[in-house]
Task: structure prediction
Amino acid sequence: MTSRRHPSRYSPTSPVLRATPTNEQRHRDLREAELAERRLDRIHADAATHFGRF
Result:
């Protein structure tokens, strides 16, 4: 019994491979998340100094 290979599964145009984010995209998302977190921290710190500790 011969096993047949499916080239579409390994091709770069495969929807499975296309759906996975590239390293660049992952890195960009991580940086955006970090920046958003810092922004939130700054807002919370400003609010804390304005209205006292929550």
About this structure: Helices lie at 7-10, 15-19, 23-51. The chain has a mean pLDDT of 76. The chain is about 70% helix and 0% strand.
